[in-house]
Amino acid sequence: MFLTPRTIPATALALFLFAPPVLAQEAAPAPTPGPTVTPAPATPSDIARGAGKKLDAFQAKEARAVLEPLVPQAAANADVAIALGRLLEQEKKYDESAGVLRKAAGAAPADARIPLWLGETLLRARKTADADASFRKAAELAAQALAARPDDAGALLVQGSALSRLRRFDEAMVALGKARDLDGGRPETLYQMGATRAFQQKWTDAVSLLSQTLEKDTGMALAYYYRALSQEKLGRKDLMVVDLDRFVKVAPTAPEAERARALLAAASR
User: Fold this and answer.
1) pLDDT tens, residue by residue, 212-242
2) Could you read off the pLDDT of 6-32 as tens digits, one per residue?
3) Where are the alpha helices (H) located in 68-202, listed in sequence order?
4) CA-based angle 170:173:177, to the nearest 5?
5) Is 50 exposed, middle or buried (0-12, 13-18, 19+ CB in 10 A)?
């Protein structure tokens, strides 16, 4: 209880008023420690998605260090299989990548993401017809998922990405626009929209969408590349050079990096 002048004898009042603060109040009780919260351990899917972010930036060596302990789980875990397939593709081990993803598709036949990434591997391997078949499968599975859940942003992203690869650009943009409305404009969605606009040669829209992508995630390396190409088409070679320089620094091992270096060399002459 705090003492007040009313409770203190007059002869003691002066002593109270001039006492050091520590004597003028009761000691505060020690705070009660709160409960200790132990964070949940990362699941294989969490780790695989983290590796996927490294692969967005073409950090294959770093991604391999993270994924190596999870390799035995690839056959049963779609997230691990997708990350491992992407890693092998970036390491130019296209047959191994396709094998991992085909095995995962057998274990998770309804997962539309798997044939989408298989298509990307086949495209890098220059197996265009097989890649298109895989993209069609991805679009088909995504449509089935959306029939059950029309507000599935992930399925819309897969559908839009697959349709873009199949050169059905207007349909792709409809699906991707819906995905953006549902997911709040995730970098992956914005990137696919920007790349699709670049494929359509709608350069101004491409620059805008790819800029939005990079505002949210500077690790989306290919966004620099496609924005650079779009800037060049808009007559902004100065901005093209800036973006290409960033791209080759972020992703020096990307297949597109060779062309980026050639464009930089030509621009410097």
Assistant:
1) 999 999 999 999 999 999 999 999 999 999 9
2) 333 333 333 223 333 333 344 455 555
3) 78-90, 94-107, 113-124, 128-148, 153-165, 169-183, 187-199
4) 145
5) middle
